[in-house]
Amino acid sequence: MLGQVIALVVLVLGTAVLGVWWSARQGAVRAPRETSAGIDWAAAGVALTDRVTFVQFSAEVCAACRSTSRVLGGLTGSSSGIGHRELLVDDHLDLVRRLGVLRTPTVLVVDGGGNEVARMSGVVSDTQARQALSRVPTAVAEADGEGQS
Amino acid sequence: MRVSKGIDPRGPRVGASITAVLLAAVVLLGASTAGLWLLTFIMLSFLLGTVRGAEGSWQGMLFKKFVRPRLGPPAEMEDRRPPRFAQGVGLFVTTVGVVLGVLGVLPAVPIAAAVAFVAAALNAVIGLCLGCEMYLLMRRAGLVRA
């Protein structure tokens, strides 16, 4: 019986470590992947904003996508320089493969030139979204300039 | 995006916590016939959840009858497909354990229970949704269609 108890304790601890690791990754701002170079966003049906666009990959079955969508939508409302485009992975499997998107939601922060500046996956919080914007020099003023002229 | 009515997302999480406790009990029972019986019961529960959806499993019905009335309405509803898919993953893992156990490989019983425990416990405690995490990977591999 002692062996089984030890096995269960190890199992619970291992699960806890996995849970902490997974939670910490949710929405964390990561460096861009190289794969987005040369993507023709317009041809893929994604109209980019001049300064910075959150390109969000979502799925209908994904509950976390909805809250992420609300957060990003809120940010675009605060500034005209920030865009938010939500794509269904089912309609854009080619793009998903080219960009190395593995889960939903995945959000790419794309600058006006079509270059990926950062990416996040999992539920994105408002703080994390603003942190991602700070990777785009010209976008910081936009997000912070809420309410100012 | 289409926002379906869906199910209360707390239902599958409460169900997963009940299942996690049962799976932990299988681990404690170890490579034994008693463990095999309990794992078989859990396997049949997953079968029910796979056929009827997580909300139609006995855990889901316990939630509806005893837990839901004590809670306020959920902030938002959740698509019923990912929890149902997760039930299918649980069914697969526990079936492997049960089949091997019946064939005489009893250590497979607590091992299968341990694997299923990780998924059920993470679902219960932090809301990790295995079905959601795996959906895109399976779409990419062509294993499921939209």
Number of DSSP helical runs of chain B? 6
Structural class of chain A: alpha+beta
Q: What's the arrangement of strands in the largest beta sheet of chain A?
A: 2-1-3-4
Question: What is the number of E strands of chain B?
Answer: 0
CATH superfamily of chain A: Glutaredoxin
Please write the string of helix (H) and strand (E) elements of chain B.
HHHHHH
Return the string of H and E elements of chain A: HEHEHEEHH
Give the tally of β-strands of chain A: 4
List keywords for this structure.
heterodimer, A: alpha+beta, 42% helix, B: 146 residues, mainly alpha, 6 helices, 0% strand
Walk me through the structure.
The complex is a heterodimer of chains A (149) and B (146). Chain A has 149 residues and is of the alpha+beta class. Chain A is 42% helix and 17% strand. In chain A, a hairpin with a 4-residue loop joins β3 and β4. The longest helix of chain A is centred in the first third of the chain and has 24 residues. Chain A starts with a helix and ends in a 5-residue tail after the last helix. The model of chain A has no long low-confidence stretch (mean pLDDT 87). Chain B has 146 residues and is mainly alpha-helical. Chain B has one domain. Helix content of chain B is 70%, strand content 0%. In chain B, α1 packs antiparallel against α2, α1 runs antiparallel to α5 and α4 packs across α6. The longest helix of chain B has 22 residues. The radius of gyration of chain B is 16 Å and the shape is globular. The relative contact order of chain B is 0.19.
SSE blueprint:
The complex is a heterodimer of chains A (149) and B (146).
Chain A: H1 2-25, E1 52-58, H2 63-78, E2 82-88, H3 93-99, E3 106-111, E4 116-121, H4 126-133, H5 137-144
Parallel strand pairs in A: 1-2
Antiparallel strand pairs in A: 1-3, 3-4
Chain B: H1 10-29, H2 33-52, H3 58-67, H4 81-102, H5 108-126, H6 130-140
